[in-house]
TrEMBL record:
It is a peripheral membrane protein. It holds the Pfam family ABC_tran. It is found in: Cell membrane. GO terms for molecular function: ATP binding. Keywords: Antibiotic resistance, ATP-binding, Nucleotide-binding, Transport. The lineage of its organism: Bacteria, Bacillati, Actinomycetota, Actinomycetes, Kitasatosporales. It comes from Yinghuangia aomiensis. This is ABC transporter ATP-binding protein.
């Protein structure tokens, strides 16, 4: 089976989609490389869900070229569908079934599924295998969604806001699970509103604003973040002081020499991913 031309899992050129007079996706070019975690960021209504649903083959497009695992999702069939995994924002409802029953049932839909018990274990639900979904917490429901998304052993996994409502510890464990999937070779396209999640997980991020992709880069370089000066702050004569500098270490050494050791209230600040993200979407308005 053909995987991907030039190690590209997703290739999009000139993608356009309008709902009536409203253009939701407005000429997007995007490449997701095989084996990477790519995070799509953007404010509410930016077009993330529309774009990903087109890539998943769940929504038609008005214009543009799209290749996902080498095939056009608008025309691809069941064999292609078995190579992708999808975790939607909303959980499905399976009130009367247990976790194990659901996972075993859905395994029947795939030509070469992963072992259901191993998948339940991988998402940390082994001790809930006999529980009905109504007895699960929100975070546990989300883990079941992910279990179903990875059950077919997909080459490409779509994760739509996977950790909404998770407590911090569960989020960390979930991140480990996602990083483990990447380590196993799964390509992951993630949409999220959590900048720390993108920073922790993503190899590259793309920022979508009003249907246009305004920047694509690593979390460290997005929006020229790596080039931005650092701000050194300290307290002197009871008043806060600050200086923007490309050489914070030299500034601190000079300050330390001047104070004869410890510099009161010393901190070094660099723009966070959230800072550059907010600047990028502000400029796009
Ligand atoms: N089925 C639809 N019919 C009409 N307009 C739609 C439809 N789906 C989405 N839209 C509009 O298209 C735009 C993009 O929506 P989309 O759901 O793709 O954004 P999003 O980036 O996923 O937002 P969020 O972060 O809130 O999930 C929005 O203005 C939305 O109102």
């Amino acid at each position: 089976m053909e995987t991907t031309p030039g190690n590209t899992a997703v290739r999009v050129r000139g993608l356009r989609k309008a709902y009536g007079s409203h253009t939701a996706v407005d000429g997007v070019d995007l490449d997701v490389r095989t084996g990477e975690i790519f995070a799509l960021l953007g404010p509410n209504g930016a077009g993330k869900t529309t774009a990903t649903e087109i890539l998943e083959g769940q929504r038609g497009r008005d214009a543009g070229e799209v290749a996902v695992l080498g095939e056009d999702p608008a025309r691809a069939g069941a064999a292609w569908r078995a190579r992708i995994g999808i975790v939607l924002q909303e959980s499905k409802d399976f009130a009367e079934l247990t976790v194990a029953e659901i996972v075993r049932h859905f395994a029947l839909y795939y030509p070469a599924p992963r072992d259901p018990d191993e998948v339940i274990d991988a998402v940390g639900l082994a001790d809930k295998a006999g529980s009905r979904t109504t007895q699960l917490s929100g975070g546990q429901r989300r883990r079941l969604d992910v279990a179903l998304g990875i059950l077919g052993d997909p080459e490409l996994l779509f994760l739509d806001e996977p950790t909404t409502g998770f407590d911090p510890e569960v989020r960390r464990r979930f991140w480990d699970l996602i990083a483990g999937l990447r380590a196993d070779g799964t390509t992951i396209l993630l949409t999220t509103h959590y900048l720390d999640e993108a920073e922790h997980l993503a190899d590259r991020v793309g920022v979508l604003a009003a249907g246009r992709l305004v920047d694509v880069d690593t979390p460290a370089r997005l929006g020229g973040r790596h080039l931005a000066p650092a701000t050194v702050r300290w307290t002197e004569a009871g008043a806060p002081q600050e200086i923007a500098t490309d050489a914070p270490t030299a500034e601190i050494a000079a300050l330390s020499a001047r104070f004869g050791g410890e510099v009161p209230g010393l901190s070094v600040y660099r723009p966070s991913l959230e800072d550059v993200y907010l600047t990028l979407i502000g400029e796009a308005r």
